[in-house]
Write a structure and sequence with these properties.
The complex is a heterodimer of chains A (199) and B (482).
Chain A: H1 2-24, H2 28-48, H3 52-77, H4 81-109, H5 130-139, H6 143-162, H7 176-180, H8 184-187
Helix pairs in contact in A: 1-2, 2-3
Chain B: H1 2-10, H2 14-33, H3 40-58, E1 65-67, E2 72-74, H4 76-103, H5 107-126, H6 130-148, H7 155-186, H8 191-200, H9 203-224, H10 232-239, H11 242-248, H12 251-266, H13 272-295, H14 300-321, H15 324-350, H16 367-370, H17 372-386, H18 392-406, H19 410-436, H20 450-468, H21 471-479
């Protein structure tokens, strides 16, 4: 029990610190990596709750796919770190005020006494399958939101494709085919002019 | 065996299922047949909306039935809102066609995304669980962001889409945080179960509920565009192409009202005194800011954006009264507002020349000398927005104020009247520009497409006819709340 508590606080501290890092690190690439770390720590927390499948999905999908893509984007557009710093100082006083107000509100509200106690998680026996239970619930009780999420993904695909440019409108590219098929007559014009006499 | 019970179970959701299937057909038809007939996505879209309107009308008199393990509920209110969501969308898609073809925007993508958004709106009014309600809200707003940015050559549209996207995500996050707090207390995402727990709530629970309410109302107010969560509205309304503005300004607001009924009236009736207070602040700020700032606008789209902020304030007055009559009045108001907004922005889209929109109020100068019928229609719309008697806008304002006076909130009704007098100034200023100012120079008048001209005439006359004979619609709104 004690060991579990120690690990819980270790992972929880990891989540909070890496989340802080996402906001405060100056290099956008470091921020993204810090977010990856936050995902890994939360996966560890889920593992402790015996939600193995969800924990693995979090690592596979978010850390493996989404964040890698995210890093690609951040690296390709090469964000200027200075801009982040400038706006950071500019909005700091207002941000601090807002943060203080929000923190005070949440400290007042989010007390354990205000929530129904859930109790300890039930410890399942060894051949209990997380995936099976999830699958059963997902395709029966939650089939409606599940299908909605699928439609949402379809919308994302349609939107992303429709926002892509269809034809390069004013892009300057080399047309290799045209260059290869060019003939001398297309470029050079020979004129026969009478020679001029010297005055 | 299981499949047959599933289908028997899913019949209340027939309009939604039909719309989703048709949306997929539109998507595929655009891919395969757009060479043969470029307008095929448009025709299929309108056909789909007409079909869904018929299906929803059939469901109007049925008692409430639930489906999908109680996560979906079709009741008269949701059917009524569905009818008007589809009707306003039908009009806005009709206005959009000629502009889309003129500016060579992709027709198929526009209508597919639009139908997805309509589907999201319908789910927002008929889901009975916080999870699908939120998914419906996202399904409604995601296509809108893309539709705004669809005109790639326009920098101002991309800026509007970006602003709307970031602010919208923030609002969704707030709403979601509120829902998570509620879930922490109730351990249930079902609205009917939550309502039972709310009614038994002890004092300690109520602090959490109040905190969750702050986040939820902030999210809702943002989506309505009510002050002080309005900052996105003028920029987005102005930056988006008019055909998108008239879509995002009309149907989503009707859906948002249904969403608010689910969240506040059905799930937390016991917390009414608390959300009433929030709404009073929102309503007063919206009416004041919307009406006063609109006076100094020279851009017609921006002016209509501020006017929509003030209209949201008036609509909230119906919710504040907290009676059945008040809710019916709010529903009537939002339907009237949707048709007024449609007609207002459709004018801008119709008067656009070669893809350049008639944004400035100056563009309407002396419209009466060029096209008297169109000028008359703009006049009807403006009078309706100001709330002048023979139009629907008058009865909308009247019923909302009536509901307020019935619950002894006379001071609020008086305040609303004062702001509406201020508001009348800028509406009437537009009419003055059209009728009494000479046109600046003889610019060629754009040729109006026939279908859109007929639609705008029907739309404008509807504002007048429903103003002369409002009892049918008022009765309908009252009936769904009994």
């Amino acid at each position: 029990m004690l060991l579990e508590t120690i690990f819980f606080y270790l992972f929880a501290a990891g989540v909070v610190l890496s989340a802080v890092g996402v906001v405060f690190l100056r290099n956008p690439v470091h921020s993204a990596l810090s977010l990856v770390l936050a995902f890994v720590f939360s996966a560890c927390l889920w593992l402790m709750l015996q939600a193995e499948f969800l924990a693995l999905i979090l690592i596979l999908v978010y850390v493996g796919a989404v964040m890698t893509l995210f890093l690609f984007v951040v690296m390709t557009i090469n964000l200027d770190a200075d801009i982040k710093k400038q706006t950071f100082v500019h909005y700091l006083p207002f941000g601090l005020l807002l943060m203080a107000l929000l923190a005070a509100l949440l400290l007042f509200v989010l007390k354990p006494a205000h929530f129904l106690s859930i109790g300890q998680p039930i410890i399942q026996d060894q051949d209990y399958s997380n995936v099976q239970v999830l699958g059963k619930v997902l395709y029966t009780h939650y089939v409606y939101p599940f299908e909605l999420a699928a439609v949402l993904l379809l919308v994302a695909i349609v939107a992303a494709i429709s926002l892509n440019p269809r034809q390069p409108s004013n892009k300057k590219t080399q047309n290799t085919e045209k260059q290869l098929y060019i003939k001398r007559a297309d470029r050079v014009r020979l004129l026969s002019m009478p020679t001029e006499k010297k005055p | 065996m299981y499949l047959s019970t599933f289908f028997a179970n899913a019949t209340p959701a027939l309009p939604e299922i039909a719309l989703l299937s048709m949306t997929c057909i539109v998507l595929l038809a655009d891919l395969f047949f757009s060479r043969l007939c470029p307008r095929i996505p448009y025709y299929l879209t309108q056909l789909a909306l007409l079909g869904v309107i018929c299906l929803s009308l059939c469901a109007l008199n049925k008692p409430q039935t639930s489906a999908f393990f109680g996560m979906f509920m079709a009741d008269p209110l949701s059917s009524l809102l569905n009818v008007f969501i589809c009707l306003t969308s039908l009009f806005s898609f009709l206005y959009a066609r000629s502009f889309l073809e003129e500016t060579k925007m992709p027709l198929g993508e526009y209508y597919t995304l639009g139908l997805f958004s309509v589907l999201g709106m319908m789910l927002m009014v008929s889901s009975q669980n916080f999870l699908p309600l939120f998914l419906g809200l996202e399904l409604q707003s995601l296509p809108l962001y893309a539709m705004i940015a669809l005109r790639r050559s326009s920098g101002i549209a991309s800026e509007a889409a970006m602003k709307y996207f970031i602010m919208g995500s923030l609002a969704s996050a707030m709403l979601l945080y509120g829902i998570s707090l509620l879930y922490g207390v109730t351990h249930s995402l079902s609205i009917s179960e939550a309502a039972i727990i709310f009614s038994q709530g002890t004092a300690t629970h109520n602090t959490v509920f109040a905190c969750a309410l702050v986040f939820i109302i902030a999210g809702i107010a943002f989506k309505f565009g009510a002050a002080p969560f309005h900052a996105w509205a003028p920029d987005v309304y102005q930056g988006a192409p008019s055909i998108v503005t008239l879509f995002l300004g009309s149907a989503p607001k009707i859906a948002m009202l249904g969403f608010t009924f689910k969240f506040l009236v059905q799930a937390m009736p016991t917390l009414q005194t608390q959300w009433q207070l929030f709404f009073i602040i929102l309503a007063v700020l919206s009416m004041a800011l919307g009406n006063i700032v609109a006076v100094v606008q020279t851009n017609f789209k921006r002016m209509l954006a501020y006017s929509s902020i003030s209209h949201m304030g008036y609509m909230l007055l119906g919710l504040i009264s907290g009676t059945q009559a008040g809710y019916a009045a709010a529903t009537f108001y939002i339907i009237a507002y949707a048709f007024m907004t449609l007609a207002g922005f459709a004018m801008i889209a119709l008067l656009s020349k070669a893809g350049v929109e008639a944004e400035s109020i100056k563009d309407f100068q002396g419209l009466n000398y060029k096209h008297p019928w169109l000028a008359f229609l703009v006049m009807v719309v403006m009078f309706s927005m100001a709330g002048v008697p023979p139009t629907i806008g008058f009865f909308a304002k009247l019923s909302v104020l009536q509901a307020l006076v019935q619950v002894d909130l006379v001071w609020l009704a008086a305040l609303a009247l004062i702001f509406s007098v201020i508001g009348a100034y800028y509406y009437i200023a537009v009419i003055k520009t059209m009728y009494f100012d000479q046109p600046e120079k003889s610019t060629p008048f754009p040729t109006l497409p026939l279908d859109a001209t007929i639609a705008i005439s029907v739309n404008g006359l509807l504002l007048l006819i429903l103003g002369l004979f409002p009892s049918g619609l008022i009765e309908l709104c009252n009936k769904v709340f009994l």
